[in-house]
Design a protein that fits this description.
Helix content is about 40%, strand content about 20%. By secondary structure, the chain is of the alpha/beta class. Strand 5 and strand 6 form a beta hairpin. Helix 2 runs parallel beside helix 4 and helix 2 crosses helix 10. The chain is globular and about 60 Å long. The N terminus is likely disordered.
């Protein structure tokens, strides 16, 4: 049985902040809205219309997902620093070097999934599960003729948008530890565990401020992330029990196929794995994640599920899925 953990320790004060708009939030809102329009025009699969072998593969994948009446989707947004090589300014606000944009992504995704429905788009009209937890959303659905509840939990890693504050903040250290635990549990207990963040050149998933080359503002890829692979080693440890692995693992980060795919497939051979093949913009991995989440709540099968990840030319060229229905 899937385990649901409701943790209130790390709830951040959101209500007042939500009204001012976080850096890159409006961009994420635009990305999501545009992609939702594409998804709205895509039909829903009917199991009865599929060839027998395709139907059997789809039913097998959704069997465990639906058997407890809950589609459990968890989104772990990594510490998504926006590094331009110089100070970032927006309007009158000076964000300094490498501001965090995962908070803006959280608000945008939250707005999308609780917002209006259109066409066949199903990742909409979710409601906040409880009044005092703004990270968990639920909705009743009919999937493959079964009445089920979908539950989406979204958590983000950055304590603030400001790198200088985060690197010396005990709140950030606590937030990082919380996110590592959240992602660990998602990989073991959820139906779908999506990571949206940096690959860190194979050292991710990462929920902490970046490690820099000493005395510089350059991220220490060669000497730390690629050398030690701290995030990926923790991920593999989370997946070491094959009886407790997410059915879908979405690695929504740059070049994640090359960085993670081979070892993930051997460690979690029964999990469907979504990856990217290039260094991408946040728009591409963000929208592919939306497509995957929407596909799950609609019960999409082989071809249509894959299509939902690849609704734009860039996504079609760079987003892949393996082990999902094979």
């Amino acid at each position: 049985m899937k385990k649901i953990f409701i943790i209130f320790l790390m709830l951040l004060p959101l209500a007042a902040e939500a009204r001012r708009g976080y850096i890159y939030q409006s961009s994420f809102e635009a990305y999501g809205e545009s992609y939702a329009k594409n998804l709205a025009n895509l039909g829903n699969d009917r199991l009865s219309n599929l060839p027998a072998d395709k139907r059997a593969a789809c039913e097998q994948r959704y069997g465990r997902i639906l058997n407890d009446g809950l589609i459990d989707i968890r989104v772990a947004m990594g510490y998504l620093d926006w590094t331009t090589g110089k100070t970032v300014r927006s309007g009158a606000r000076n964000y300094g070097y490498s501001p965090s944009i995962d908070i803006g992504a959280y608000y945008a995704l939250r707005e999308l999934i609780t917002g209006r429905c259109r066409g066949n788009f199903g990742l909409c009209r979710f409601r906040q599960e409880t009044s005092n937890n703004p990270y968990v959303f639920v909705k009743e659905l009919n999937v493959h003729g079964r009445q089920v509840r979908a539950r989406v939990e979204i958590q983000f890693a950055s304590a603030s948008e400001y790198l200088d504050n985060n690197v010396s903040s005990s709140t950030q250290a606590q937030r990082t530890a919380f996110m590592e635990g959240f992602y660990n549990r998602a990989l073991q207990d959820a139906d779908a565990a999506f990571y949206f963040g940096h690959s860190r050149n194979g050292g991710g998933p990462d929920f902490a401020p970046p490690k820099f080359v000493p005395g510089t503002n350059k991220v220490n890829y060669a000497g730390y992330y690629k050398k030690y692979r701290p995030g990926f080693n923790k991920m593999l440890e989370s997946l070491n029990n094959r009886s407790r692995q997410a059915d879908v693992i979405g690695m929504m980060s740059c070049d994640s196929r090359d960085h993670f795919m081979s070892k993930l497939r051997s460690t979690a051979p029964n999990s469907g794995v979504i990856t990217s093949t290039q260094v991408l913009t946040v728009e591409e991995v963000y929208t592919a994640m939306i497509g995957g989440m929407d596909a799950l709540v609609r019960g999409q099968c082989q071809k249509t599920f894959y299509q939902q990840l690849r609704m734009t030319a860039r996504n079609a060229a760079n987003i892949t899925m393996d082990g999902m229905f094979e």
